[in-house]
Design brief:
The protein has about 160 residues and is α+β, with helices and mostly antiparallel strands. The protein has a domain of about 110 residues: Thiol Ester Dehydrase, Chain A. About 35% of the residues lie in helices and about 30% in strands. The chain is built from 5 helices and 6 strands, in the order H-H-H-H-E-E-H-E-E-E-E. Helix 2 runs antiparallel to helix 3. The model has no long low-confidence stretch (mean pLDDT about 85).
């Protein structure tokens, strides 16, 4: 029950912060995202239910982000494969973090197109997002999810980020 209380208090605090503009000011202070501050960016800028997926950030550089998503029973289907919603959420999160490596603020995902090439089963996943092109109002991005062990492609995704 304590964790439920914490979640509601955290949710309330985040809404108050966003309403008052303090969270926006906090993001202004910590951006751009780097390997040194990525955990702070995740805490301030990413929803708590997304953080619960347990993404491990492996590499951060301007326009690129690499993370690991471990196999987890809570994110698996009855077949043992990672559910598509978990992988799509991870794609969007890692892509958004790659966008935050630039000092440019605001915006969000306008579209995400995913091709699932095989079941994400029996191995942890490596997710790498790369910004391909930045324009005035949009950015184009590619994300690849591969098995950590073999490097075989599991999901290929392209996204458009709107400012």
């Amino acid at each position: 029950m304590a964790s439920d209380t914490w979640w509601w208090e955290n949710l309330y605090a985040r809404k108050v912060l966003w309403t008052t503009g303090q969270a926006v000011a906090e993001m202004d202070r910590i951006l751009p995202c780097t390997m040194d501050n990525v955990e702070e960016v995740l805490t301030v800028g990413i929803a708590s239910w997304v953080r619960a997926h347990g993404l491990e950030i492996l590499e951060v550089e301007e326009g690129r982000m690499k993370a690991r998503l471990r196999q987890d029973l809570d994110q698996q289907l009855f077949t043992g494969g990672m559910c598509g919603q978990a992988t799509m959420s991870a794609i969007d999160t890692v892509m958004s973090l790659a966008m935050l490596t630039f000092p440019r603020k605001g915006g969000g995902t306008a579209s995400q197109n995913n091709q699932f090439l095989r079941a994400a089963i029996r191995d942890d996943l490596i997710i790498e997002a790369m910004i391909l092109k930045m324009r005035k109002n949009t950015a184009y991005e590619e994300t690849r999810i591969v098995f950590e062990g073999s490097g075989d492609l599991v999901v290929h995704s392209t996204s458009v980020y709107a400012f």
